[in-house]
Design goal:
4 copies of one chain form a homotetramer. The first copy, chain A, contains 18 helices and 26 strands. Chain A is of the alpha+beta class. At the A-C interface, α1, α8, α11, α12 and α13 of A face α1, α8, α11, α12 and α13 of C.
Chain lengths: 471, 471, 471, 471
């Protein structure tokens, strides 16, 4: 699967002489969460500096820009967005100045009530430079009523609804906070005395050499400063039932990461095993769609006893076809990414495992490649239920109309993809593979049951419709 | 002279199917006013789009970006800033959204009370994304008290002090306005029925094929919309004495432009003639420092009867020297721009005419080139008085300490430059070459008499000290 | 393994209106054979045009360059070379003009007697622009004695010794030829009536939609022109024993390709199975070094019954670390490519399978990552024998001194890599996995038995020592 | 004028630790002779290295490439070519290896008999990689018959016909040579004990700080090596009448240069004075077409007594118009380069001076700008005769058909340009301004009298027709 996009990855580090350089490595390791723009803000203890840009992390930063950011604390952000709203103005971290001085914020998630708050603030005279939720948070923090509260940040975070894993930098500290449902992940790490990290996923800790400590808890605010790490809660633990995004474990996160405290790779193996139990197939071999389907395919093979065979070779190069579209050339761009190993497929009945189907168009092209390579039967197995509903908490699915399963039965999908059989994992089966209770997860994109109520009048799309068209 | 930098050039066009493309040509023609960043915002009547970037206009825009801006109205901006404050965040036009919808502003000038206003607004909860004065104007417009005024823009423009030639775009109109002193220029042009232009200088009208109509008057607001062109005043004409920046005519503006209604080239010829009267020299020939000194040198030659001779050849290529600095290599970078025609100089007593001296370092290197080429005597003549004070109204001089004439007598300067004689034009002489009365001009950089009082505590530098360090 | 480099991939297509575009796709699919420079030459039937450059195929070509090459026949080349000899002048195809008109050549392989021929020709007045063997072939073809022969190409190919899979383009035809030992692969494909392809590997046929016909035989010359495909032999079949490069099947070729008529993926599975028989290990799981070790690791798992587990995640992004080398940061650059899945490794005895070891430095870093992730025992298994000798036929190994196994016993290597056990596949075992008899393969890099005698005085290195230093 | 293009500028320096860096400066200063590609070759005394590329000198070289060329001797080349033959393969210096070792050549000029020699050598088995004359010279040098001559270079230079100013580098020396007619310039300079320069024009000496010594004489060979500077002649002085290209003085050379021992600027002033005598005009002012017409316009003004006025402002920026061609937009691209100072022109009778007319299309657009700006009368004066014939000695004129004056009378040209009067300088008048006798100059492009007979069958165009189409 490749058409659902996580909006963001965030990383912060406090107390290291190479903070900006390590932050670069941290967001480099989080690019699977967003690879269309990135930024780093760092502070020398008094002034915040920032560099942001469009494109891959390795293109945006070089020795020179990192040298200019050389400071003992830094936060970074990497971001995806669909073509329409891929706006430079929304590149993060957002940096602004208000009565209390400078502030930089890197945000993963989506605020349900941001459009409403924005309208309210505009009515009171505020101006907005971006279309991002993150700017709303800064306006809330800057409000004179809030500034005088004992804990302005806690006060503000109680006013925003939805998903937020935030890393905030003030000139002298880094603050991490997570919404009461803990929808998006946020992990804490340590690198030595007085050096702390915070990141969307622990795979970024591995690359910088940090130890995973624990997650930032739902409703918790963690401050990293010269005193070390201190914690408080803006929402008491236990008051709200967690609603961790199950799609993080199914699809987004890096297999090497711990997410919500559980290993991603191991979880996906379990999903594959459960899939083999629920949706067995008479076949000669199991193959995976690289790279997303590899973990569940291995699990499926282990449970079913069918041999796991390599069916596709993934190209490590990026290229375009310059030929005018025509009958004969149609599937070339898929083949430039994935080539079939004919010998693994020819004359065989194959189980093909993938982690999910969103639009279904590239999946169809891949099935066609397998047919052309001589597959006798194709049994497609998906390690989650059909994706039927949008996400309002930070996953950038296409609109409902474009979701293949939105208004189609499994039979209709099977026909569209031209496979011999199609089996999805059940929601119960999926949730049974998790380390926490089933009701601690959000599965709204499958079930339509949203943990935070969404006013359809003020959905995230309303803001997009009003976005500033800047590019 | 090359070290004083005008901050900006602005251009707007309403009612043309190729508005963005013509706006591109307009700001292209204004790059002598600022060549470090540029931007264009355009509107289809309902939504504003914008593209901005660092570098030359030709690098920032291409067919693709202009196609995305293809709309019937557009405003553009080109900008210079010294290295320290060359911040992408300050690239214009500034585009924001407030209670009344979208707004884009391109601004040439400098507001004296912007730092004070900024502090006030921050105290009331506003957040700032840039360090530019322009953002302050949008905050003022967004204030609920102001929004309800009969003419909010007029109200706001009465609250800001200093220099401003503004081009504002709302989704359905373009508005041009100029401060009551008319410090910076702003000209109106017409291209046909219902198509209007507004620009810092008329040289941009030539390139797009527009006719110069008249200047936007000091204190005037001109609106360009579907009704055509309408005018009103936020400050009654005659209430304030004009204070046009004389340095525009001496140095900044393009020789082909009309500025404050008078032709730049003709004015500079007059300055050269006056210089010859005030500061004659016994010499064999007159040469100019390309390209800035060419007009006054021709005037000097005409008045003095000394032959005008070509002493330097200017390279059309940009290059760097990669050699480690050493005795022998010192002046190479100056020579890469200007080469001396030895035969014009050798054994001769030459009058060298330039328009001004700011820091004096490159002037010294040029004088040294002339000596090395065999000049017998060098008589340097400058077509304005010594630049001794900073400008608070939009000219980006170096700090006072770096101004060569700040604390030096003419003799000391002459010695520093190692010339046989040095003569500056007097302030009276300079102003006598203008078409308007002498007291209609600001000559504060020479005299220290500022038309708008500057609170030294809240000078433009105070904001720079507080700037957001983004790059 | 990543330090042995094949020199080249070649592709040619005759008789298709989109020949250059398909050639671009063809060399795109061959980039695993060389990714430091590439080129395409095409012909309209009368004149040859060419575009070459340094870097990845996707960077060198764009719509514009391909449009200029739009012609009904094209040949392409993609190339690797070590830093020292990475010379733009050696970029292929080589295009030259001689008495018979224009000629373009794309060459995979290495000619043993090229230095000698070069000296001879220089003595007769020839001048050389490159340091490549390929230029020597053109000089041979241009020799007046040869031009008059009944079949000049056949005559010339009998004079050169070593490895050559050649694709030659004359203005009106494409000619493919292969050395009598058939050292490097060269495959023929068909796309429809009158449209033929020739390529190093069949994976390039898949991407353009061509059918594999057969290999160009050792000693064969195949011509593709308006008459279709015709064949002749410059060296009679059977006269010379084949010596196919076994390393193509072990390491270089794409798993989806047929090489020497046998499927690469299937062969590597067999190598893994044989490895499990020869070098078993008491362990809990089998993991592979991505991507090269994946096929043999799956074979090892199948034979041994040990579960195949995912131990590493490979990053799809390219990046650099900008931090000064230090104790703490040492292994970061390896981790930026490969991250360990801790849960797969922790506390386990793992068999790690790779296809080969050349220098051993990155292998050592990977073993260290596994230790750090908590591996209890590491049993490294390699699906070929130790690489001990250089290749004179086109594989770009480092010099003997840099080959880890050159003068080390298996015990010493095991110690260097700090693994609990190390096992290599035997040469007999390796060759037993091939479809052709063992004596039809060249295994000189393992055994030192070279099929074409190499005069140590005139080795390939002698030419490199004399190379023209151009960059 | 801007459509005649000199092919090349050459520069060499021996005996300086920063030779490559100074060579970079040298060719930088020669870019007016060719700005489409450039290259530098340097030697450490034993091996030659080279870097070449397409585009401006400042783009091709950076600190890194110059560091790799850091050596005590270097030669460089900068080159123009028309679109059709702008081939990377022809970028110079040409570097090759032959029996005597490495050789690099930078060549300004055109060899008349190169096509014939090329055919002969091809018949003897030589292969050609480029379409340049320069490669022919290396083939001649490599011929075994020539290698054994007492002075192979002298022998070879007697075999080639046409124009050549050559700078040759062998690993241990630099050699400069010039054809017996001395068609193209070549000057010698000194920088200190044992450090020598050689260059197309002395303006490059100014930038590196060298002293002009004298010209390399027609028929002379100058060697620069550890012994210092030595001279010999391959063609005895006086044996051949010089035929210096008068167009170098009229148009190509930099005004600051000495060419054929005479100052360019001074010569052009004389041409302008002579033009005023021959072609007077009743007018109010003299203006020039920047920058080429500035020198003769000043001379015209001095002689005629008419005031020299600034009519155009030249933009220092490069830009394109992205608007679809239309009636209203036609002349924009000319205006982006040159803007008219309306006040200098309006209502006036102006003499416009330019140095030459080649195609006439941009001249016509410029005349139209003047009319639009209100010029009452336009009297165009050209400081050379009508250009009617092609150049076979290294000036890249368009083909005869495209030369405006090829088959038009002065009246017809005047009508085409829509001017009130048109006057060309006579050939006698032009030659009377030279320091050497009239018969020491080649004026074939005006008169059709070629100093070296051109076989129309084997003209320079024949080679172009056979060029290798590489790009």
């Amino acid at each position: 699967m490749s058409q659902a996009r996580e909006s963001c990855g965030v990383f912060g580090i406090y107390g290291h002489c190479d903070a900006a350089e390590l932050c670069y490595l941290g967001i480099f390791a989080l690019q699977h969460r967003g690879q269309e723009s990135a930024g780093i803000a760092s502070s020398d203890g008094q002034r915040i500096r920032c560099h942001r840009g469009m494109g891959l992390v390795s293109r945006i930063f070089d020795k020179n820009t990192l040298d200019q950011l050389h400071n003992p604390m830094a936060i970074g952000h990497t971001r995806y967005s669909t073509t329409g709203s891929s706006l430079p103005i929304n590149t993060q971290p957002v940096v602004a100045e208000y009565s209390q001085g400078q502030i930089a914020i890197a945000h993963n998630g989506n605020l349900i009530n941001a459009p409403l708050l924005r309208r309210t603030y505009e009515a009171h005279g505020s101006i907005f430079h971006t279309t991002s939720d993150t700017e709303v948070i800064i306006h809330l923090l800057a409000k004179p009523d809030h500034v005088i509260k004992p804990d302005p940040l806690a006060h503000v975070l109680n006013h925003v609804q939805g998903a937020f894993s935030l890393i905030i930098m003030l000139p002298d500290r880094i603050i991490a906070a997570r919404d009461p449902h803990g929808i998006r992940p946020l992990a804490l790490g340590r690198m030595g005395t007085g050096t702390y990290c915070v990141a969307s996923e622990t795979c970024s800790f591995d690359i910088v050499g940090a130890q995973y400590l624990r997650d930032v808890e739902p409703g918790e605010i963690v401050e990293l400063d010269h005193r070390g790490m201190t914690s408080r809660y803006f929402c008491q633990p236990g008051q709200v039932t967690p609603a961790h995004c199950v799609f993080e474990l199914v699809y987004f996160a890096d297999p090497a990461s711990l997410v919500f405290g559980q290993n991603v790779h191991t979880t996906r193996l379990k999903l594959g095993r459960q899939l083999a139990i629920e949706q067995p197939a008479k076949a000669d071999a199991v193959i995976s769609i690289p790279d997303s389907g590899r973990c569940p395919a291995m699990g499926f093979s282990q449970e079913s006893g069918l041999p796991y065979v390599r069916g596709f070779v993934r190209s490590h190069y990026v290229g375009r076809t310059f030929i005018e579209p025509s009958q004969e050339m149609r599937d070339i761009s898929v083949k430039m990414k994935l080539n079939v190993i004919r010998e693994s497929i020819k004359g065989k009945r194959v189980v093909v495992v993938d982690d999910s189907i969103v639009r279904g168009t590239t999946t169809r092209a891949k099935m066609r490649s397998l047919r052309q390579a001589g597959a006798k039967e194709i049994h497609l197995r998906i390690s989650c239920p059909p994706v039927r509903r949008p996400c309002y908490y930070g996953v950038d699915f296409p609109s409902s109309d474009e979701l293949l399963a939105h208004d189609r039965t499994v039979e209709q999908i099977s026909e569209f993809l031209d496979v011999d059989s199609l089996g999805y994992l059940s929601q119960e089966g999926m949730l049974s593979c998790m380390d926490q209770p089933a009701d601690h997860f959000c599965a709204a994109c499958f079930s339509g049951q949203y943990c935070v109520a969404v006013d359809p009048q003020v959905s995230k799309y309303s803001m997009e419709r009003n976005q500033l068209h800047m590019f």
